[in-house]
Amino acid sequence: MSDLENPFQETLISRHRAEPCTVVIFGATGDLTNRKLIPAFYNIAACGDLPPQFKVVGFARRDKTDEVFRTELEAGNRKNSRQGHNEELWSSFSQCIHYHRSEFEDLDGYKSLRVLLDEFDKERGAPANRLFYLASAPEAFKSILEMLRAAGLNEGVGGKWARVVCEKPFGKDLASARALNHVVAETFEEKDTYRIDHYLGKETAQNIMVLRFANALFEPNWNSRYIDHVQITCAENLGMEGGRGGYYDTAGALRDMVQNHLFQLLSLVAMEPPTDLSADSVRDEKVKVIRALRPLIGPEAVGKNVIRAQYTAGSVDGVPRVGYRQEDRVNPQSNTEPYVALRLFIDTWRWQGVPFYIRVGKQLPKKATEISVHFKKPPQVPFATNNLIKNSENTLVIRIQPDEGIALRILCKQPGQAMNMQQVKMDFRYSSSFGKASPEAYERLLLDAMAGDATLFARRDEVENAWKFIDELEKAWHKTDNPPPMREYPAGSWGPKEADDLLRQDGREWRLL
Ligand code: BG6
């Protein structure tokens, strides 16, 4: 095929370097700025990809000078920068960092922000693009958006654009997500709205589309005729460290991880090929997957297909851990789940009858996210079946993190006289194949937002359809007289035994990680 015939080509070569830009981070004294956003900008600078005349302004309530703010961020960068911390680079990069103190509800603070941004433009000799990043507590999003509008900051100046990036959580249910989408839409057009899901910025998640749509080998088999089932596991070996318990206890695994990150991975695995790589073509296909999820409604359906659980005291890596209800800032009678496992079906032609098993949990034995695609067994195996080892199906494992890569498990003959079989692994590792670390998700996403590429951001309908599914499911837990029970697992184990039963009932097992 020539380049001209390749529908993906135009988008691939048209990724351009972003133009001069000022980024304003709301809630800039929070953990995200220190741990992720500034190290991401620093690493973008280290790669030479920062737009020229770049500025970043931290907007927050606490009183501090530019200098103090820079010093705090320097400490964060030393700890969190992917490519290490270079004094010389930091000292030039940090000059683009500024601080602006204001309450989120105070219009005067936005008017003075506008004066500051205009001054930057004067220094540059031309207006620059403006990116407003909402990294505050979500309760403040509405006020910030209203004030941006009232101060006229939602309009670009001199033909330049103004965009908004919204951090998660984007709402806590369908009603709140819709209300937030409404305020966002009053302030910015959808094309200028970037809802972050940092899983989409992970190199390995982006590779799912390439694996599926650029290789003739997999796509013909990527359907219910050849695939027995799919598993998606997102395990974490941490609990409620860093004071997260307060937020987390209002969310739980289903809202914190499944509604966004896990559904995004699921969509990438299950979507139809997009006609091109434009943001809307890709997102059109992803949202169809979420819309086709078979709803789980009522205690019976939910009890049969969803297992929720809390960890009890245990130990991870030999370190003792308290139970979920004993965690700092968690309600001792909490009814929130730090673990959930689901059996899902996607009602489309391609996926009819193929279960997608998803599990996500805190305080599991290790941190690992992977997708495994389990293929059906051959119709007839002409070797002595008693030699067939357990779990002998071909499995394609996509390791999202850590040890990023892809493995294919196939059966081979063991050397020797007998026709004994053994499962072996063909393994691709990013680290050895490319010899360099992949960029952090935030680096990619910030560059994309500045370059105007919304492909890796969630669209309004994606977010709302995902909440619709989650809301219906959650009613069975919180709005019925006979909710399915909360299960338990010791910290440091792979989850409750009922989650194992979920697969065992279907004659399957979770893949060992
Ligand atoms: C966040 C969740 O979105 O993702 C956290 O709020 C979770 O609870 C985190 O720990 C996991 O992200 P990652 O990139 O470390 O897998």
Descriptors:
513 residues, alpha/beta, Rossmann fold, Dihydrodipicolinate Reductase, domain 2, nine-stranded mixed sheet, 16 helices, 20% strand, disordered N terminus, binds 6-O-phosphono-beta-D-glucopyranose
Beta-strand level of the residues, as a percent range?
15-25%
| Integer-rounded radius of gyration | 24 Å
Ligands and ions found: 6-O-phosphono-beta-D-glucopyranose
CATH architecture of the largest domain: 2-Layer Sandwich
Q: Helix coverage percent of residues?
A: 25-40%
Weakly predicted, low-confidence segments: 1-14
The separation of the N and C termini measures: 39 Å
Shape: globular
Strand order of the largest sheet: 16-15-14-13-7-12-11-8-17
What's this entry about, in short?
This protein has 513 residues and is α/β, with parallel strands linked by helices. Helix content is 36%, strand content 20%.
Describe this structure in words.
The chain is α/β, with parallel strands linked by helices. It folds into 2 domains: about 20-160, NAD(P)-binding Rossmann-like Domain (Rossmann fold), CATH 3.40.50; about 200-505, Dihydrodipicolinate Reductase, domain 2 (2-Layer Sandwich), CATH 3.30.360. Helix content is about 35%, strand content about 20%. The protein has 16 helices and 17 strands. The strands form 3 sheets. Strands 16-15-14-13-7-12-11-8-17 form a 9-stranded mixed beta sheet, with helices on both faces. It has a 6-stranded parallel beta sheet with strand order 3-2-1-4-5-6, sandwiched between helices. A two-stranded antiparallel ribbon has the order 9-10. The chain binds 6-O-phosphono-beta-D-glucopyranose. 6-O-phosphono-beta-D-glucopyranose binds near residues 168, 236 and 256.
